[in-house]
Amino acid sequence: MNPAPNLVMIGPMGAGKSSIGRRIAKHFNLHFADTDHAIVERAGTSISTIFKYSGEPEFRRLEREVLHDLLNHENRLIATGGGTILDPENRHRMQKRGFVVFLKINVNTQLERLAHDRYRPLLQQIDRKQVLSDLYATRQPLYQKIADMIVTTDHMSPNTATAQLILDLTAHWQKSSNTA
């Protein structure tokens, strides 16, 4: 099994961190946690409302607190928000307290998956493709830098991506335990 205390899913919006993460957590008998849901619970209001009235810096502060609290536990699968990676402290903690899986997708797949999403504050722009392209350019190198494993989920259903990730994780952990 996973030698790290937790399994952490990172990647852009629409990559499948939450939907795939829930399935992976169930398979490996891990407690599932979603940082965005935990932020909403802690703040008592929606992410859109936090962005609108308190701004992105306050949201990022809450995100850092929630992530650190979740990482202090063990045997969790933590699905992070797409921008969690921006904070150097978050990156350090994720690497220290988890096995980090980067779910990678291209911008066109993101556009398809998020076409009807009206809840993500960073997507409330006219040119969604440009916004997603800009976010991808900024965040992609950070995702890759801390990832222990990269799985491309383009053109995969959540079930297919889950099955592939279960195989990849199992093989990796077996290989790690054989070399330890």
Could you write a compact summary of the structure shown?
One of its GO terms (cellular component) is cytosol. This protein has 180 residues and is of the alpha/beta class.
Q: What does this 3D model show about the protein?
A:
Monomer. Its EC number is 2.7.1.71. With 180 residues, the protein is α/β, with parallel strands linked by helices. The chain has one domain: P-loop containing nucleotide triphosphate hydrolases (Rossmann fold), CATH 3.40.50. It has helices at residues 17-27, 35-43, 47-53, 56-71, 88-97, 107-113, 128-146, 158-179, and strands at residues 6-10, 31-34, 76-79, 99-104, 149-152. Helix 4 (56-71) packs parallel to helix 5 (88-97) and helix 6 (107-113) crosses helix 7.
Tell me what portion of residues adopts beta-strand conformation.
5-15%
CATH H-level name... which superfamily? P-loop containing nucleotide triphosphate hydrolases
CATH class placement = Alpha Beta
Mean pLDDT: 89
Topology order in helix (H) and strand (E) letters: EHEHHHEHEHHEH
Quickly give the CATH architecture.
3-Layer(aba) Sandwich
Radius of gyration: 16 Å
Biggest sheet overview: 5 strands, parallel
Distance between the termini: 13 Å
Q: What would you call the structural class?
A: alpha/beta
Output the strand order for the largest sheet.
2-3-1-4-5
Give the helix level as a range of percent.
55-70%
DSSP summary, beta strand count: 5
Uncertain runs are none
CATH topology: Rossmann fold
